[in-house]
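Following up on my earlier thread - several people asked me to post the actual chain instead of describing it. Fair enough. Here it is, all 171 residues.
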Amino acid sequence: MIQSDPQIADRAAIAELNARFAWLIDHENGHGVPELFTADGRYGYEGHWCEGAAEIEDFYARRRQRGTRKSRHVFTNSWTIFESDDLALSQSILTLFATDGAPEASASPVCILDYSDTLLRQADGRWRYRERCVTPVFGRMPRLMEEMPAGALSLAPTARSPSAGRVAELR
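Reply from S.P.:
Thanks for posting it. Predicted structure:
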């Protein structure tokens, strides 16, 4: 007998959140990305973190100042584990195609990155990122957070994210 997944709607909502994240970066230059996070959400990698909606917005504003960018963020191999009705851990792989300036982008990926997420269901029922931790796997990861002026970003005490560690434990 095939059993239905009681969290199928939640899984679909989290997949839609990931797709929206990619769409906003690729087609809206990051406008709207902070709304995908909780008010105190964290987004970063290797000890470099944007903490809270204002810092995430500042990150994308600074990214837009760099000029024209063409990108496609392709998320695959996503899976989610529910810790409770309102807390989920998720893992996905990003294959990034991107170029800066006017030239045409190559069909070769710039890099492949692991994303480890902690997600919280909000009072309105929508899932939001509490934390997105990016880990480079292949290629050169864009180091945009490190290029920002000192004080523009928070530095975590360790390079390893709590959600990345927890997701790794659950594999």
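The chain has a mean pLDDT of 86. That should answer part of your original question.
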